[in-house]
Amino acid sequence: MLSYVWRNLLGFRDALSRSPTSSKILLLLFVLSLAVYPIVVERSTESHGATASKFNLIPISDFTVGASHPSIVPADGTTSATAIILVSPINGFTGTVALSDLPLPADLSCTAIHPAAIPNSSGEATVSCTSRVPGAYDVTIFGTSGEIRHNATATFTFTTSAAPDFTITAVSSVSLTADTTATSNVTVTPQGGFHSEVNVTATVYPSTGLSVSLIPQRLVLGSGTATARFSASAPGDYTVTITGISKSHSHMITIVVAVTLAGLLDFEISASFGSINIEAGNPGVTRLIITPSSGFTGPVTLAVAAPAGISCSLSPTSIQSSGTSTLTCSSGRPGLYTITIKATGGTSTHTATVNVHVATLSPAAPAPSTILGLAPAIFYVVIAGIIAVVVAGAVLFLRPRGSRPNAPKERAIFSRCTSSDQSCEHASGRRPVQTSSACIGPRVWGIMPRRASYPSPPLQLSWSRPHRILRYLLILVEISCSG
Question: What's the CA angle centered on 428, arms 426 and 434, to 5 degrees?
Fold first, then answer.
């Protein structure tokens, strides 16, 4: 355009070159061209907008904010509806996005957004609201990162009665090791007469290192259980989002899956009793327990080492991956011994120790004392019984007979002199007493049985021979027993 103007000016210059005022006219035309040029350029730019848009192709880092519509719940003030807020980066945006939902509509109560900030502008948050007034409430979710701000709207609907809908539940966390699998149940439950088909899907973040499959993926009549199978190939923490969709209804749950490195195949050995007490000469036993870990399935060989003074044995000495073995120890020498058991399996070796305390053998209890083969108490009871029988027999034999007070005596006691030249007799009982003062020698006393006729000699007890008293006493016992 500028060259076109200059060509026109040069043409006018040739035409006006012969005029005396030509130089002044050329100067005036040049100034006018400078004033008209910006207007002509602006209009040319507007007419070629497609060409000018090529200057806006430079990428700009940014983020987006989205929100799900929660399910319809009763307006009872306690049943909450939950909306999920999604934040995603654009063109490598890595800033932290702060979330806010203020101000809230009237008659609506909401919990704080959790989490309140999304690092690296990638993740999700939740907000739950309740209301006692039926209706639909629009909550604006603001996401701010520096000078950039975006928003999304979540609509919470509350009714006087529960609308047909469904719920989806599952465990909140699952743990497994790398190169293994794990399962968890996802349950869909209808509410308010809901009977539509529900489709379940799963997404994983990060998308590599863990895979998830759901069987079945379609639940008829909005009720049933799907099995989520997790297969891990790399350690890390994964967020699995399971979504259930049925027409206009949609619900999501999240499961945190923790994947750890697989441990080395190994086993453990332990004793049921770490210390046993025995007496010298008597054996003692305890059990050794082998427990596998991290899938160990190999054999384990056992060996025992005991110090001098005690002997120990194991049965059995080989265990296949898991089981028990019996340790038996005995010693005749009192003391404290430490027994070491060594277990070897695969590339691992473990030991266990058992303390054995050997006590002195307790002395045997003394045999009870006896008298003539009888216990002392029994012997003295027998002796007392014999004495009682003898005394009772003597009393029965010597006591007077009859019940009348003036009855004549059935027995008589006599005494007479034993000297050949002296006579002296005494009698008591039914016969008169005959006395003689000439009787000065030793006398013999006797007992005359009843109806005996005098002077028949009576049974005599000689006081001059005391060693015969016991014999006569035994005779009296025999008479009392026979009579």
Answer: 35
Given a contact cutoff of 8 angstroms between Cβ atoms, the answer to whether 138 and 155 are in contact is: yes
- List the beta bridge partners of residue 332: none
Collapsing DSSP to helix, strand or coil, 290 comes out as strand
Class of domain 266-359: mainly beta
Q: Do domains 165-260 and 266-359 have the same CATH topology?
A: yes
pTM more than 0.70:
no
pLDDT digits (tens, 9 = 90+) for 41-77: 555 444 444 444 444 556 788 999 999 888 888 888 8
Q: Residues 6 or more apart from 461 whose CB is under 8 A from it?
A: 445, 446, 447, 468, 469, 472
Reply yes or no on domain 165-260 having CATH 2.60.40.10.
yes
User: What are the pLDDT digits (tens) for 295-342?
Assistant: 788 899 999 999 999 999 999 999 998 999 999 999 988 999 999 999
CATH 1.10.510.10 correct for 64-159: no
Q: Which single residue is written with the structure tokens 């690092």?
A: 119
What is the per-residue DSSP string for 192-248? Answer: TT----EEEEEEEESSSSEEEEEE-SEEGGG-EEEEEEEEESS-EEEEEEEEEEETT
- Are 156 and 131 a contacting pair, CB within 8 Å? yes
DSSP result, 325-350: EEEEEE-SS-EEEEEEEEEEETTEEE
Dist CA 378 CA 371 (whole Å): 9
| Cβ-based neighbours of 76, under 8 Å, separated by 6 or more | 132
Tell whether the model's pLDDT for residue 418 goes beyond 70. Answer: no
**How far apart, in whole angstroms, are the C-alpha atoms of residue 28 and residue 23?**
9
Q: What is the DSSP string of 88-125?
A: EEETT----EEEE-PSPPTT-EEPPPBSSEEGGG-EEE
| CB-based burial label for 279 (10 Å; 0-12, 13-18, 19+) | middle
Burial label, 240 (beta-carbon count in 10 A; 0-12, 13-18, 19+): buried
